[in-house]
Structures are given as structure tokens and as C-alpha cells.
Amino acid sequence: MKSQQQHQLIASTHDQLSSPCVKNCCLDDNDICLECFRSLEEIRKWRQVDDDTRHCFLINAQCRKKDHKTKITPTCDTGDLQ
Which of 17, 34, 46, 61 sits a CA distance of 20 to 30 A from 10? Predict the structure, then answer.
């Protein structure tokens, strides 16, 4: 069974891929939105490109989101606790 996120990313051939925008942009120092994880350039081009390109943008955003979560996940060195 596919997750809700996967369903949002997959559209029929007759539909345009929907923008992941939640209208709450917060850009980091690299001009990546911390809400949808698209680059500013991808956000600007979204309406001009075809669904294949949009799909690539969404895959890039997923990778950025995963990378971002990995960087901010707290880790604990148990050696420091003793």
C-alpha cells in the first residue's frame, strides 16, 4: 500500500503534478525552502516545466528533506554519559 506522500507525488498521465507548496516558504542560506525542500529556482520554474521535470524536482526535494533530517537528528555518544 502506498503512503499518502507517494500518492501525492504520483499523478495520472492526464493530471498535472500538484505543487508541494504550503505557502509558508522559509529559505535557508542555500535558497532551499524548509517547507517543501525545493530550491528557489525549482519554485520559480514550477509552472513553466512539464510533469517529467516536476517529478525530478520532487525527487530532488525528497533527497534534500532526507539529508536535512539526517543533519539535525540529535545523536548521543554514550561514552560522554559515564
Answer: 34
Grid cell for residue 18: 500538484
Within its chain, how far is the Cα of 29 from the centroid? 16
In the chain, where are the structural domains located? 24-70
CB contact burial 3-27 (16+ within 10 A = b; e otherwise): eeeeeebeeeeeeebeebeeeeeee
Average pLDDT over every residue of 31-46? 97
Q: pTM for this one?
A: 0.67
- In angstroms, rounded to a whole number, what is the distance separating the alpha carbons of residues 73 and 25? 22
- Identity of the amino acid at 19: S
Q: How far apart are CA 51 and CA 13, in angstroms?
A: 9
32 forms beta bridges with 39
